[in-house]
C-alpha cells in the first residue's frame, strides 16, 4: 500500500511526481498545465470571489466526501451571488501516512464535481505535515465566478417577497451525525452535498427576479433566515409545516433532540423571490428536486426577527443556533 510521505510535500522529485501523476491527471486543463507561479486568467466584467476550508470528519460519508464538498462548497458560494463558477484554487494539507489510494478517491471525486458546473482548478498547493499535525486531510478552495445576474444580495429583501427552499433540509448534518455516532439506523440519512449552479442557472435563465440566495451550510436554514432578517431589516415569517424534512432526518432529530432548521446542508439553498415570480421559481426548482417548497413570507411585523408559525397557530421566534452543534461538519 502506497502512502503519502513528507517528501511528497518537499518541493522536489516526489512532489513533482505526485502533482503530475495525480493532480494533473484528474484536474488537467490548459491553465493548470502551464505550471507557472500563478494562473493567468481572462475575466470580463464583475467577478465574485470566495474561499472556504474543509475539515469534515469522516472524510467519506453517505452522499459525499471531503473532495466533493470542497468543490461544491466554493462553487455554491459563487452561484449564490448569481455568478457562473469559473476558476478554483485548491490547497491540500495532508497528514503523513495517508494512503495514496484514498487521496486519489478524493481527487477524482473533486474532478467529477467540477464537471457539474464546468469550473476548473487552475492553481494549487500541496503540503504534507507530520502524523498528528492534521487529521488525514484538510482542503482549502477559493473560487472566482463571473456575475451573470447582478443585485442578488442579503440586503435586497422587500416586504411581500416569498421564501423558497430548494429541497428538504438538514440532510448533511444528519448524515455526519449518524456517521459520527456510528448509529444503527434502519435507513441512514444521505448528505445533500451537491453543486447548485445548474438550479441557479435555470432560475436566472427563466428570468426569475431573485432578491437573495444563500446555501444553508453551518447554522442551517435558521442562520440564513436570521442573517437576512438582520441585513434587510425585515421580518421573515415561516410556516413550520411547509418546511420540507425527510423521514430519516426527522427521525434522527427526534432521537437526538435537534431541530432540522439548525442542521447544516451542503446542497440546499434558500431563495427570496418577487411574489410575481414565486410559482415559476418553484416549478424551476422542482425540476432539480421535487421537494422544493415555499416556506414563508417577508413582512415588516418585527424587523430583524424570524417568526416560526406552527400548525396550531402558535408563533415563536426562530433564533440563530447557539454554540457549536457539530464540529468539523464541513
Ligand atoms: Mg454560503
For this entry, give a set of tags.
330 residues, alpha+beta, 60s Ribosomal Protein L30, Chain: A, Phosphoribosyl-aminoimidazole Synthetase, Chain A, domain 2, 2 domains, 7-stranded mixed sheet, 4-stranded mixed sheet, 13 strands, binds magnesium ion
Description of the molecule:
This protein is of the alpha+beta class and 330 residues long. The protein has two domains: 6-147, 60s Ribosomal Protein L30, Chain: A; 162-317, Phosphoribosyl-aminoimidazole Synthetase, Chain A, domain 2, CATH 3.90.650.10. The chain is 32% helix and 24% strand. The protein has a seven-stranded mixed sheet with strand order 8-10-7-11-9-12-13, with helices on both faces. It has a four-stranded mixed sheet with strand order 1-6-4-5. A two-stranded antiparallel sheet has the order 2-3. It is globular and about 65 Å long.
Compact summary:
This protein has helices spanning 13-27, 30-33, 66-79, 100-117, 171-180, 197-205, 220-232, 247-256, 278-288, and strands at 47-54, 60-61, 64-65, 83-95, 120-129, 137-147, 162-165, 210-215, 235-239, 269-273, 293-299, 306-309, 315-317.
Strand and helix layout:
Blueprint: H1 13-27, H2 30-33, E1 47-54, E2 60-61, E3 64-65, H3 66-79, E4 83-95, H4 100-117, E5 120-129, E6 137-147, E7 162-165, H5 171-180, H6 197-205, E8 210-215, H7 220-232, E9 235-239, H8 247-256, E10 269-273, H9 278-288, E11 293-299, E12 306-309, E13 315-317
Parallel strand pairs: 4-5, 9-12
Antiparallel strand pairs: 1-6, 2-3, 4-6, 7-10, 7-11, 8-10, 9-11, 12-13
Bound molecules: magnesium ion.
Amino acid at each position: 500500500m502506497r502512502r503519502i510521505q513528507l517528501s511528497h510535500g518537499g518541493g522536489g522529485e516526489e512532489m513533482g511526481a505526485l502533482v503530475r501523476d495525480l493532480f494533473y491527471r484528474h484536474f488537467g486543463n490548459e491553465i493548470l498545465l502551464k505550471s507557472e507561479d500563478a494562473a493567468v486568467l481572462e475575466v470580463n466584467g464583475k467577478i465574485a470571489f470566495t474561499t472556504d476550508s474543509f475539515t469534515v470528519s469522516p472524510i467519506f460519508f453517505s452522499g459525499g466526501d471531503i473532495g466533493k464538498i470542497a468543490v461544491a462548497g466554493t462553487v455554491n458560494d459563487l452561484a449564490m451571488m448569481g455568478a457562473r463558477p469559473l476558476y478554483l484554487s485548491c490547497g491540500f494539507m495532508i497528514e503523513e501516512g495517508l494512503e495514496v489510494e484514498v487521496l486519489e478517491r478524493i481527487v477524482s471525486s473533486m474532478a467529477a464535481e467540477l464537471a457539474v458546473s464546468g469550473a476548473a482548478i487552475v492553481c494549487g498547493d500541496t503540503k504534507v505535515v507530520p502524523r498528528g499535525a492534521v487529521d488525514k486531510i484538510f482542503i482549502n478552495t477559493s473560487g472566482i465566478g463571473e456575475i451573470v445576474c447582478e443585485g442578488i444580495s442579503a440586503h435586497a429583501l422587500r416586504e411581500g417577497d416569498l421564501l423558497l427552499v430548494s429541497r428538504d433540509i438538514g440532510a448533511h448534518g444528519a448524515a455526519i451525525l449518524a456517521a459520527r455516532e456510528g448509529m444503527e439506523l434502519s435507513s441512514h440519512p444521505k448528505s445533500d452535498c451537491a453543486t447548485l449552479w445548474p438550479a441557479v442557472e435555470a432560475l436566472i435563465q427563466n428570468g426569475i427576479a431573485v432578491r437573495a440566495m444563500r446555501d444553508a451550510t453551518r447554522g442551517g436554514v435558521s442562520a440564513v433566515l436570521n442573517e437576512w432578517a438582520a441585513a434587510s431589516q425585515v421580518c421573515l415569517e415561516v410556516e413550520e409545516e411547509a418546511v420540507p424534512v425527510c423521514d430519516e432526518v426527522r427521525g434522527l432529530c427526534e432521537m437526538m433532540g435537534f431541530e432540522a432548521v439548525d442542521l447544516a446542508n451542503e446542497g440546499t439553498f434558500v431563495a427570496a423571490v418577487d411574489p410575481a415570480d414565486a410559482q415559476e421559481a418553484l416549478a424551476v426548482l422542482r425540476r432539480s428536486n421535487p421537494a422544493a417548497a415555499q416556506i414563508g413570507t417577508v413582512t415588516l411585523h418585527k424587523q430583524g426577527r424570524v417568526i416560526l408559525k406552527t400548525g396550531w397557530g402558535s408563533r415563536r421566534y426562530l433564533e440563530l443556533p447557539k454554540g457549536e452543534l457539530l464540529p468539523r461538519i464541513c
